Amino acid sequence: MAKEVYLRKIIHDTYGELYQFLELDPASGEERAVSPFEAGMFREPEQEPELLYIQSKRGADAVGYCKGQCFVVKQGSKFAATTSPKCPKKYVRSREKLVLEKRLIPFQNQLLVMEDIEFDSPQAAMGAAIGG
Description:
Elements: E1 4-12, E2 16-24, E3 31-33, E4 52-55, E5 61-67, E6 70-73, E7 78-80, H1 89-100, E8 104-107, E9 110-113, E10 117-119, H2 122-130
Antiparallel strand pairs: 1-2, 2-3, 4-5, 5-6, 6-10, 7-9, 8-9
């Protein structure tokens, strides 16, 4: 049987109403004070990732964030529709693959990101987004 976690209200002479989080061990009937976060009553809020933005004259307008060892470009971002003549082949191939998978679709002289896309690094994401 699992331990029960509950709340007890205490009236303190100096501080007024206080609350104590307790855990009851059903086997022994013993109570002990616990942290509500450690007991699993509340989850600590997840921190929002820091968003990074890139824009280019050719039409890139993308937003992304770091996720572990990867970089994620968010859905709704826009990639430049064309690549520069000096664009490395790996970025050209990456863009072609995403278009074939319909994760990038042509939209108003840009390529629209249809779902979050993970890249190996921020540089790979930037190269694919700006096409250069």
